[in-house]
C-alpha cells in the first residue's frame, strides 16, 4: 500500500537526510479529541473502597510534594499514588494505612461506597469529580492533621490551613445517596450541574480566603518562603491542591490507564488541495511516498530491550521491527472503558492492591485472570482510541504509525525521531510552488542516505478537470 506524507521543505530535509519519522505527541496533532477515551467507573463496594483509599493517599502525596516545593506541573501530573503499597512510598506506609482507615470509616464515605457498589452504577467523569469534591475537604483535613502530627508541616501553618476549612460543608441533598436515581442519563445531567455548582462556589471561597493561606512564619520552616515570587508560586500550588485537585486526580486516572501514544500521520491521497495547503507549506513543500509490505507494516528502529553500561547505567537497546499501519476511523462512537477493568500498566499484585479489602477481592478482578485475552482486548482499544477523529477530518483518509512509552521515555523530541528502512521510500512529489532551489536541497539530502529506486513527481494544476494532477518527472534518477 502506498502512503503519502505531506511535509514542509525543512521537515522533509530532516526526514530524508536522517532517514527518520518524527512521532508527534497528542498535543501536536490537530484534532482536540485525539486519543480520547470515554472512561467510566463501575464496580462493587471493594472496588470503590480501593479508589477512595487511593484518593486520600494521593491528596497526601500532593501535600507532601507541595511541602518540598514541587512545581505546578508536578502537582498536576504526578500526584497519583499509583500503588499505595509500593516500596516507593515506604516512608508513608504506616501513615497511609492510618489515613485510609480513618477516611473509609467516615459515615458519609461508607454511604457512598455502598450506594455505588450495591447498585453497580456506571459513573462518568463529571459524577466522579463531584464525588471526590464532596469528600475533598475531609481528605484535606485528615492529611494536614497527619502532616502536623508527624512533623512535616509546622503546627501554626497547618492550623491556619485547617481554620479555612473549618465547618466548610457543601449543600448536598441529604437523600442523594439513599436511592437509585431513575436513569443513567438523568444522573449524568444532575451531577454535571451539581458538580459545576459545587466547583464554582468552593473555588470562589478559596480564592476569597487565599490571604489566610499565606505563610506569616518568620522561621525558616519547610513551608515559609523568603522570595516574593516563590511565595506566589507556593500560593498558586496550594490553591491547585485545595481547589483543583478532584478534577486533576480524575484526569490523572484517565491518563494512567494507557501509556502515552506518539504518532506519524500519512494519507491515502497525494492530490488533496487542502492537505497540500495545510501540511506542505501552501504547496511549497513536498509529499513523500512510502510503501508498506504485504501485511501493511513499515520497518523502523525502535526499543527492543535494555542493557547495562560500564557505569551501571541501564540504557535502552534498539533493533529493527515492523510496525502496523492503522487506518483512522471518522465519526464513529467513541470507545468506552471501565477503569476498574483497565489497569493494564500494573502487574497483577498491584491490580489486587486496588481491588482488595482485607481478605476480600473485587469481582472486577475476574477479568484479569485470562491474561492473554485481556491484554489482546486492552491493546485493541489502545489502537482504536488513537485512530479515531471527528468526521470533519474524513477527507484526509489518514493512516497512522503509532508507538508508545511503555518501555522507554519519549519526552524529548530526539527520543521520538525513529529511523525507518530507506527501502520503504518510493518517491517524492514536488509541490506546485516548490522552488528549484528547494528541489536541489531535497535531492542533496537524499544523496547522503541510502535511498534507491526513488521516483520523482511534479504536482500540477489541471485546468481541464480543475484538480491537482501528479506527473512523473522524465529523466530524474537519484543515482
Supply database-style keywords.
479 residues, alpha+beta, five-stranded mixed sheet, four-stranded antiparallel sheet
Describe this structure in words.
The protein has 479 residues and is of the alpha+beta class. It folds into 2 domains: 181 residues, no CATH class; 220 residues, no CATH class. The protein is built from 13 helices and 18 strands. The strands form 6 sheets. A 5-stranded mixed β-sheet has the order 1-6-16-17-18. It has a 4-stranded antiparallel β-sheet with strand order 5-14-8-7, with no helix packed on it. α13 links the parallel β16 and β17. α2 crosses α6. The longest helix has 30 residues. The two termini are 24 Å apart.
Structure in a nutshell:
Helix content is 41%, strand content 20%.
Domain module count: 2
User: Widest sheet: strand order?
Assistant: 1-6-16-17-18
- Total number of beta strands: 18
The percent of residues in helical segments reads: 40-55%
The parts where pLDDT drops under 50 for at least 5 residues are 215-225
* Sheet with most strands: 5 strands, mixed
The helix tally amounts to: 13
Radius of gyration: 27 Å
Rounded average pLDDT: 84
Helix/strand class: alpha+beta
